[in-house]
C-alpha cells in the first residue's frame, strides 16, 4: 500500500492538490475537512457538534476524527493506497493513525508539507469565504484563530514525522499546476523507491 499525507496550514492548497493527486495516482482521498462538512450538510448529530468547533476556528475532538478515519479505512480495505488530507491535525491523531495502519500491516510512506506564508493564506481564505460562504473562512478573526491552533497543535505533527525521517517540505506559492508538478515528482520518486524495496 502507498500511503501519503499532505500536510500544511489552513488554505495551503491541500484540498486543491489532493484532488489532482488522487486522480493521477489512483489513491483514495481521505479529507477530514470534507468528511466533517458532509456531516454538517446532512445535519447529523456529529455534524452539528463539529460545526460548533469549526465555526470558532477550533479543532474537532480527536476521538471524532479518528473514528471517521477508522471507518473509512474499513470501507476501503482493498485500496491501493490513501492520501490523507487535513489528517493528522494533532500528535495524538498521528499516533492513532500509525496504530490503525499497523493493524493493516502498512504504514505512512511520506509526509509532504506545503509551506505558504501567513499573509498569502489569509488572502486565499478570505477570497474563498467570499465566494463559497464557508463559515470558517468569512472573518479574519476566525482565520487568525485557526493559524494559532495550527501553530500550537498541528505544527508538532511535522516534527513527529521528521523523527521518522518521512517529512519533505515544498514551496506552496506558485500556480496550482506548478505546485502539482513538484508534488507529482515527489510521489513518483517515492512510489518507485517503494517498488524497488
Ligand atoms: P480543512 O478543510 O482540512 O482545511 P482547509 O482550510 O480547507 O485548507 P486546504 O489546505 O485544504 O486549502 P484549499 O486547497 O481548500 O479544515 C477545515 C477545518 O476542519 C479545520 O479548521 C478544523 O476545524 C476541521 N478539521 C479538519 N480536519 C481535522 C482534524 N483532523 N482534526 C480536527 N479538526 C479538523 O485551498 C484554500 C484556497 O486557496 C482555495 O480557495 C483554493 O482555490 C486556493 N488555492 C489553492 N491553491 C492555490 C494556489 N497555488 N494559489 C492561489 N490560491 C490557491
Output the radius of gyration: 16 Å
Mean pLDDT: 95
Number of strands: 5
**SSE order, as H and E?**
EHEHHHEHEHHEH
Taken as a percent bin, the fraction of beta residues is 5-15%
The helix content, as a percent range, equals 55-70%
Which molecules are bound besides the chains?
Answer: BIS(adenosine)-5'-tetraphosphate
Query: By helix and strand content, what is the structural category?
Result: alpha/beta
Separate helix tally = 8
Summarize the structure.
This protein is of the alpha/beta class.
Labels describing this entry:
binds BIS(adenosine)-5'-tetraphosphate; 197 residues; alpha/beta
Structure description:
With 197 residues, the protein is an alpha/beta fold. It is 60% helix and 13% strand. It contains 8 helices and 5 strands, in the order E-H-E-H-H-H-E-H-E-H-H-E-H. A 5-stranded parallel beta sheet has the order 2-3-1-4-5, with helices on both faces. Helix 2 crosses helix 3. It is globular. The mean pLDDT is 95. The structure holds BIS(adenosine)-5'-tetraphosphate. BIS(adenosine)-5'-tetraphosphate is lined by residues 8, 10-16, 32-33, 36, 53-54, 59-60, 65, 86-87, 89, 93, 124, 128, 136, 146, 175-176, 179.
Question: Helices and strands in order, then pairings?
Answer:
Layout: E1 2-7, H1 14-25, E2 28-31, H2 32-41, H3 45-54, H4 62-75, E3 81-85, H5 91-103, E4 110-115, H6 118-132, H7 140-162, E5 167-171, H8 176-196
Parallel strand pairs: 1-3, 1-4, 2-3, 4-5
This protein binds BIS(adenosine)-5'-tetraphosphate.
Residues 8, 10-16, 32-33, 36, 53-54, 59-60, 65, 86-87, 89, 93, 124, 128, 136, 146, 175-176, 179 line the site of BIS(adenosine)-5'-tetraphosphate.
Amino acid at each position: 500500500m502507498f500511503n501519503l499525507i499532505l500536510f500544511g496550514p489552513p488554505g495551503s492548497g491541500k484540498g486543491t492538490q489532493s484532488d489532482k493527486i488522487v486522480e493521477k495516482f489512483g489513491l483514495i482521498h481521505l479529507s477530514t475537512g470534507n468528511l466533517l462538512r458532509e456531516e454538517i450538510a446532512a445535519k447529523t448529530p456529529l455534524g452539528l457538534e463539529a460545526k460548533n468547533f469549526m465555526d470558532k476556528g477550533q479543532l474537532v475532538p480527536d476521538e471524532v476524527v479518528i473514528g471517521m478515519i477508522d471507518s473509512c479505512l474499513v470501507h476501503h480495505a482493498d485500496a491501493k493506497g490513501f492520501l490523507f488530507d487535513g489528517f493528522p491535525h494533532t500528535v495524538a491523531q498521528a499516533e492513532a493513525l500509525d496504530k490503525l495502519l499497523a493493524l493493516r500491516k502498512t504504514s505512512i510512506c511520506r509526509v509532504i508539507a506545503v509551506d505558504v506564508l501567513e499573509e498569502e493564506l489569509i488572502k486565499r481564505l478570505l477570497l474563498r469565504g467570499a465566494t463559497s460562504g464557508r463559515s470558517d473562512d468569512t472573518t479574519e478573526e476566525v482565520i487568525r484563530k485557526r493559524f494559532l491552533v495550527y501553530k500550537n497543535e498541528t505544527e508538532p505533527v511535522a516534527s513527529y514525522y521528521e523523527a521518522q525521517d518521512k517529512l519533505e517540505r515544498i514551496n506552496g506559492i506558485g500556480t496550482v499546476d506548478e505546485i502539482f508538478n513538484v508534488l507529482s515528482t515527489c510521489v513518483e520518486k517515492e512510489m518507485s523507491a517503494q517498488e524497488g524495496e
